[in-house]
Amino acid sequence: MTKQQPVIAILGGSGALGSGLAWRWAAAGLPVVIGSRTQQKAQTAVADISAQHGVTLHSGLDNKAAAQAGDILVLTVPFSHQADLLNEIKEFAQGKIFIDVTVPLVPPKVARVHLVKEGAAALITQKILGENVNVVSAFQNVAAANLQTKGPVDCDVLVTGDDPKARQQVVELAELAGMQAYHAGPLDNAVVAEALTSVLIHINKRYKGHAGIRISGLGLETK
Ligand SMILES: NC(=O)c1ccc[n+]([C@@H]2O[C@H](COP(=O)([O-])OP(=O)(O)OC[C@H]3O[C@@H](n4cnc5c(N)ncnc54)[C@H](OP(=O)(O)O)[C@@H]3O)[C@@H](O)[C@H]2O)c1
Q: What is the DSSP letter of 7?
């Protein structure tokens, strides 16, 4: 990260995964904006996250204003709302890194892999936002519950995207949030991380926990 820290705007940041990423990045010293459908809900989320984790967030704004304010945008809403929100904020994402966390789950069968016809939810994001946006996919395999407690997160992060520099920035952001992250190839590969989430949900139901993934064999896992 450079000295001038980028503003991270989390669209849908009032939710389970977004709020977990928000406090961890804020704790690492990054300016974090929470986006929500209403500014009031965003501000309530900012107050709740600050009180719970003892961090200071930059601000709480409606999603459009948050997208405008952010240098790096993060999408953390359910798949069913992905396209609508992207169309709403598209103009404010141009030229930016856009981190997509979306898993294309289809309730109620969320423990069953659902493949979208576009190939991956992240590819839908790229299609909607256009080629001037650096879409990077990450964090699909991290259970929100595992972000709420302090310390390193017991799950690795697969980072996919077509621009290696943008990917590297997201790898560094994941590390700042307490996760070991790996370059996992072009955005086409996002389908694997997205699909793996349904497998993890199945494991969680069967074994009653918050399973994650670990990449082995590189010597990084003991860090
Ligand atoms: N939860 C996990 O453990 C986990 C793990 C890995 C990946 N993911 C993925 O991360 C994404 C977010 O998951 P989550 O569990 O954090 O979701 P969530 O808590 O159910 O929802 C996140 C936020 O989405 C917003 N939202 C709800 N309905 C909306 C709508 N109609 N239009 C726009 N925004 C709407 C809400 O924000 P406002 O009401 O403030 O607008 C809500 O706080 C999903 O794609 C999920 O598959 C989740």
A: P
Nearest CA to ligand 1 atom 31: 81
Atom of ligand 1 nearest to the CA of 84: 32
- Residue located nearest, by CA, to atom 8 of ligand 1: 140
List Cβ neighbours of 140 (8 Å cut-off, separation of 6 or more). 101, 102, 103, 158, 190, 193, 194, 196, 197
81 lines ligand 1 (CB under 6 A): yes
Residue from 11, 33, 76, 102 whose mutation best tests the ligand 1 pocket (most atoms within 8 A of CB): 76
Report how far residue 190's alpha carbon sits from residue 124's, in angstroms, rounded to the nearest whole number. 11
Domains in the chain with CATH codes: 8-207 (3.40.50.720)
- pLDDT tens for 89-110 read 999 999 999 999 999 999 999 9
Mean pLDDT of the chain: 96
- For the chain, what's the residue count? 223
* Percent of all residues in the chain with a pLDDT value above 70, rounded to a whole number: 97
The answer to whether the CB of 73 falls within 8 A of the CB of 93 is yes
SS3 of 185, please? coil
pLDDT tens, position by position, 7-26: 999 999 999 999 999 999 99
- What is the number of the ligand 1 atom nearest to the C-alpha of 101? 10
What's the pLDDT score for residue 163?
A: 98
- What average pLDDT does the segment 173-178 reach? 98
